[in-house]
Design brief:
The protein is α/β, with parallel strands linked by helices and 661 residues long. It has 22 helices and seven strands. α19 links the parallel β3 and β4. The radius of gyration is 32 Å and the shape is elongated.
Length: 661
């Protein structure tokens, strides 16, 4: 796609919702499950806490959604939390947010895909042994689809997201209607008992509080991805801010309704879900080899008439699809954030470059590689990965809300219009509430998850923060070094130019290099060879004299058969004795057409160039000789992706053939 076609990739709200909100929407598939998983540590005695924990999660989600609506309107350029914090709290705080979000985007991909694979295995138990290959394969598929571009991936992901919403709402409505008429669904695991871990069937005081807080922290996974819309505002159609804010509201309401419905049904159906299947009692045949069905699978089976029901498979298929596609939130958020960071010189500039389909290809590939590695390392196990999750989200939530409070303070300081001041004051109250709430949750998450693996996420974020600071220092130092201070002094021509043509044997590439060197008209010119084998050197000298080559040939002795070192030493010595002169080194090179041909020719020219480039005042000039296997201009290679961008002939849209250059 041509650069001017970027506007065609902008998203309407109906596509933006599945692209940017699939993560928080899909989290209802495992948020309730994570709450139950924590509370059943004490058997069934503490499941009565579930409604209170769920209510806390719902209230928090409402606050965060309202808070980020303010961010969307105040900062529509797409930086989200990073831009808010950088502008209001400083660059270092902004980098904390950026590092936290980058880590969390990686975890979003890993957790979403692993959870999706879990739901597939819940429907087809025979696939349990292929958990990791399936997870890594899905990550690769998502990366490939996103490399096709945002709009194309949005069309592919819209149907599964809406199918999931419809299937879950149908399940909730059906379950509630059955309960209303006295036919309350009963989960398959309801008949199974739960053995408390280490006999913890009674807790009180601080122990009970910590259990409730830990369950709340796990349930807060429902909030992951909420900030993605604020990061992706530039991808919306105009009016961007209003469309993004509307999409965020729809996402928040839908996610809350589904989360509340699934949690209520799980309690009504008496779903039991534990960390280790051997905590369950009453399993036919024992716990060995028993695979627990996910909470969603148990509810679908109980409500729709068992695991043979068509609607059961519809729910499982929709859930698995949307969980896997929920990773797309990260595949859009991570490259966008990485692009902004690269533009600000905190990440390599390659991250800012758009690919052939106007997607940030390097960011997409980097995310896929890291997330795939995590899935392989942790065996695609949701429980293991979930502990690394959400810490970064609440770090960015908290800092961005504090930054927004400071933003509104600044607006109020210079504003005299009463209507504007009233709106700013309301926004400040919302963001202040969000800051206090998310800060408390951040403390809870740290206390309850740090020793369970969250420390790895902290370490990763710290490493990223240090790395980004180092990258910025490098770019700044390079810019300072390359800045023009005195144009007259820095554009002084060298007093003389001495040319050196490197020679291994006398053949066509050597004669071409000599011809090019003479065409440059250096003040002095010599040919240089290294005497590795005495017989070959004598033969070269004989041919040189026989053909009467006018350029003098200098022979460097090399008793240890080295080539690079004698040449580099000779050039550096010449520069030392004649510092006002420039040295132009001409290197004849073969150009081959097949990858395997590189293995048949040594790469001494490449190594020589890499060494000479570090010598001040030395210019290295490659003189290629195309072998017959190399592509020629009159025999063009097969059209490859991006060939139009690289200048190969093709008819552009709406451009007559006669107007092309």
């Amino acid at each position: 796609m041509r650069s001017e076609e970027l506007g065609e990739t902008l998203l309407p709200k109906r596509l933006a919702l599945p692209i940017f909100a699939s993560d928080p929407l899909s989290s209802v598939a495992y948020a309730t499950q994570e709450i139950l998983l924590v509370l059943t540590v004490g058997g069934t005695a503490f499941l009565y806490l579930t409604p209170w924990v769920a209510a806390g999660v719902v209230a928090l989600m409402a606050v965060v959604v309202m808070s980020y609506r303010q961010v969307v309107h105040a900062y529509p350029s797409g930086g989200g939390s990073y831009e808010v914090v950088s502008r209001n709290l400083g660059a270092n705080s902004g980098l904390v947010v950026a590092a936290s979000l980058l880590v969390d985007y990686v975890m979003t991909v890993a957790v979403s895909v692993a959870s999706g694979v879990d739901n597939i295995i819940s429907a087809f138990n025979g696939l349990a042994d292929y958990r990791v290959p399936m997870a890594v394969g899905f990550v690769a598929l998502l990366a490939a689809m996103n490399l096709r571009g945002v709009r194309e991936s949005g069309k592919a992901f819209a149907a599964p997201t809406y199918l999931f919403i419809g299937a879950i709402l149908l399940m909730i409505i059906t379950g509630l209607i059955r309960a209303l008429f006295g036919d309350t669904p009963v989960a398959e695991s309801a008949a199974l008992g739960i053995v408390p871990v280490d006999g913890k069937d009674t807790l009180a005081g601080l122990g009970l509080l910590m259990l409730g807080l830990r369950a709340f922290a796990s349930g807060c996974t429902a909030l992951t991805g909420v900030e993605a819309i604020s990061n992706g505002v530039p991808a919306f159609r105009a009016p961007k801010s209003r469309n993004a804010a509307t999409t965020m509201s729809v996402m928040g309401i839908t996610a809350i309704v589904m989360f509340v419905g699934v949690t209520a049904l799980a309690l009504m159906a008496k779903v039991h879900y534990v960390d280790d299947a051997c905590q369950l009692t009453g399993i036919a045949g024992g716990c060995s080899g028993h695979t627990q069905q996910t909470v969603i699978a148990q509810l679908a089976a109980a409500i729709f008439g068992g695991t043979d029901s068509i609607l059961f498979y519809v729910v499982q298929a929709a859930t698995a699809l949307v969980l896997i596609l929920a990773a797309n939130t990260a595949f859009n958020g991570f490259p966008l954030l990485a692009s902004i960071l690269a533009e600000h010189r905190y990440l390599p500039r390659q991250m800012h470059t758009r690919g052939d389909r106007l997607a940030f290809s390097n960011g997409i590939i980097a995310l896929a590689v890291v997330a795939g590695g995590l899935l392989w390392l942790y065996g695609a196990d949701v429980t293991s990965l979930i502990h690394l999750y959400i810490l970064g989200v609440f770090t960015s939530f908290t800092l961005s809300q504090i930054g927004m409070v400071k933003h509104w303070n600044r607006v109020l300081t210079g504003e005299t219009d009463n209507s504007v001041r009233g709106s700013a004051q309301r926004s400040r109250i919302i963001n202040a509430l969000g800051a206090v709430t998310t800060a408390l949750v951040l403390v809870i998450v740290l206390l309850t998850k740090f020793t369970q693996g969250a420390w790895l996420a902290v370490v990763a974020a710290v490493v990223l923060w240090v790395m980004m600071r180092g990258i910025r220092r490098h770019y700044d130092s390079v810019a300072d070094e390359l800045a023009v201070d005195d144009p007259d002094a820095e554009s002084v021509r060298p007093s003389r130019v001495h040319g050196i043509v490197l020679v291994s044997k006398l053949h066509k590439p050597t004669l071409r290099a000599l011809g090019y060197a003479e065409a440059f008209r250096p003040d002095s010119l010599e040919a240089l060879t290294v005497a590795v084998e005495s017989d070959a050197t004598r033969e070269l000298e004989r041919q040189w004299d026989e053909l009467r080559v006018q350029v003098p040939l200098k022979v460097l002795e090399s008793p240890y058969r080295e080539i690079t070192k004698p040449v580099v030493q000779y050039v550096r010595e010449y520069r030392r004795t004649s510092p006002s002169e420039a040295v132009a080194v001409f290197i004849p090179e073969y150009v081959v057409g097949h990858w395997w041909e590189h293995l048949l020719h040594n790469q001494s020219a490449l190594w020589l160039k890499s060494r000479l480039l570090f010598t001040a005042g030395v210019m290295v000039i490659s003189v290629p000789w195309q072998l017959s296997s190399a592509p020629r201009a009159d025999h063009p290679a097969r059209r490859a992706p991006g060939s139009v961008r690289r200048g190969e002939p093709a008819r552009a849209k709406g451009v007559p053939e006669t107007e092309k250059v």
